[in-house]
Design goal:
This protein has about 525 residues and is an alpha+beta fold. It has 14 helices and 16 strands.
Length: about 525
């Protein structure tokens, strides 16, 4: 819709401002015939005549200009650019050629070159109203929406003929900034100036989109998820039997469920805000008195939108409850209740940058803090309370509609009360979502996506600790863990409010300390409801 509107806008501008130059004649009858064929919209004939004319007279700026315009009309933009370049470089230059050259460069996304000629045209005061409009289009493409609005306002002030087109583009700029009410006002202005025009038709389509967005936006959204499945290693039983004494019956069924409430108020202007609350539980058919858990999490993220970039300050708090007994050797008849297990805090800024229409870069830094309760006390060196910095760099590629690829690198440090847990970590994860149905079929049957994930997490512990080898010997060394993870799943949004989820995930933990080596496979399926 945007592209079609721009084609109409630019075509109308070309007719308005090139009528005078095409009425001129030259001393070369061949060039004059080429101009005549162009005016009759016989563009192929004009190209043939003017190409021959330029071979015999390469100094004619008029021949270069009209030939460039003919190529532009048949959408051969590279040849249009070449000839329009000549039209501004030859003596005397065709001033209208600056405007058309800027437009051709803009259409080819050669924004740097377009801005160079834009500056020259402004300095030479060449058709200021049209140059101001093109400047607005370029600024709009760069997401400099406030400056774009100023340029469009200047354009329609200099020439009322631009009012309807400028108001439509101003509305688009307001939409990109989230100022839906102002966008609607600009669309109304565009429509009332010429209600029967094609431009008014496009403005009405945008108006319908805005009305729908205003009415459908709900500040509160509820998501309920329930997944059941089979876990091959609920208790992270070590791979080596020699260090896994007493850790048996590790396989069983599991139920994971969560309720999430998202709050995203519609704020007109550059300010951003969202918050969420999540309650999640994990219930196991075995080892329920050691591995069943409850978690309550709240997060807030105020921010500011600069156009192509947005800055947020992220804050979150999670309280974990674990069904556990704090005794190192609990009694046989122990029946523990849920006890506070950990308080987890994170906070820090994150900068998100839109590199282009399909690539998003995000950089975040901050701190995280872990406070453990009901720990099984096995010595001062094993106290896990921790605080430390964290940072991440993320790249999201929207490679097709409803499909994306995400690559994320993270770094963290945990400075703990017990030196055995002091560590530095590096994590790399990748996520790929592939839509399996065409957009037409997805509209009928619902979006069906294949989702793949993979990751590696390397933790280097900073202090020597004594541990038991598989042969029973005692060794003192620094601990090093490498954890691999991966998953494959299907997500079918069979209803606008519900999805069916099937997923297989695997984890492989490798460590120089045998008791920390384990493998785990998890098979899950369930439903997600959204409202």
């Amino acid at each position: 819709m945007v592209k079609r509107a721009l084609i109409i806008v630019v075509s109308l501008m070309s007719i308005i401002f090139n009528a005078t130059v095409f009425s001129q004649t030259t001393n070369n009858p061949v060039i004059n015939e080429g101009i005549k064929q162009y005016q009759a919209e016989n563009y192929e004939e004009a190209i043939e005549i003017l190409t021959a004319a330029r071979k015999t007279d390469s100094t004619s700026a008029m021949a270069a200009f009209v030939l460039g315009m003919a190529y532009k009309q048949i959408n051969d933009l590279p040849n249009a650019e070449k000839n329009l370049h000549d039209a501004v470089d030859l003596t005397p230059p065709i001033k209208e050629a600056y405007v058309e050259l800027i437009d051709v460069l803009y259409k080819q996304d050669k924004i740097t070159d377009a801005k160079k000629y834009l500056v020259t045209a402004e300095q030479k005061d060449i058709i200021p109203s049209k140059i101001a409009f093109l400047k607005g289009l370029i600024l709009l493409k760069e997401d400099n929406n406030k400056a774009a609005i100023a340029a469009f306002e200047k354009s329609k002030k200099l020439d009322p003929k631009f009012s309807q087109a400028a108001d439509l583009q101003i509305a688009i700029a307001y939409m990109k900034d989230g100022l839906l009410t102002k966008a609607k006002e600009s669309l109304n202005l565009s429509i009332t100036q010429n209600p029967l025009s094609d431009m008014a038709g496009f403005a009405r389509q945008y108006q319908d989109v805005i009305d729908s967005a205003i009415q459908s936006h709900r500040p509160l959204r509820l998501t309920i998820t329930a997944l059941g499945g089979y876990d091959t290693n609920i208790i992270s039983r070590p791979k080596d039997d020699a260090v896994a004494a007493g850790l048996d019956d590790e396989k069983g069924t599991v139920l994971q469920s969560s309720v999430r409430l998202d709050f995203t108020p519609r704020i007109e202007g550059p300010w951003l805000f969202n918050a969420s609350y999540t309650a999640a539980s994990v219930l196991n058919s075995k080892h329920t008195h050691s591995h069943d858990s409850l978690a309550n999490s709240i997060s807030m993220s105020p921010g500011y939108n600069f156009g192509r970039a947005a800055l947020n300050f992220n804050m979150s708090y999670t309280n974990y409850l674990l069904r556990t007994d704090p005794d190192v050797s609990p009694a046989v008849d122990s029946s523990p209740n849920y006890r506070k297990y950990m308080d987890y805090y994170t906070f820090g800024p994150a900068l998100r940058f839109l590199a282009n229409g399909t690539n998003v870069i995000e950089l975040g830094i901050g701190m995280e803090k872990k406070d453990y309760d009901s720990q099984k006390f096995t010595g001062q060196n094993n106290i896990r309370n921790a605080i430390g910095p964290k940072a991440y760099l993320s790249w999201i590629w929207l490679y097709m509609p409803n499909g994306f690829f995400n690559l994320r690198a993270e770094y963290n440090e945990e400075h703990t009360d017990g030196i055995n847990w002091e560590n530095k970590g590096n994590r790399l994860t990748a996520n790929l979502s592939i839509p399996l149905l065409s957009e037409e079929k997805a509209a009928t049957f619902g979006l069906l996506s294949l989702q793949l994930t993979g990751g590696i997490y390397i933790q280097n512990y900073l202090y020597d600790q004594t541990y038991q080898e598989t042969d029973g010997s005692s060794v003192t060394d620094k601990r090093k863990d490498i954890t691999y993870s991966g998953s494959i799943g299907l997500n079918w949004a069979f209803w606008k409010h519900a999805s069916l989820i099937c997923q297989y995930s695997t984890t492989g933990a490798y460590s120089n300390i045998p008791v920390n080596k384990y493998g785990r496979d998890l098979y899950m399926a369930g439903l997600e409801f959204r409202y």
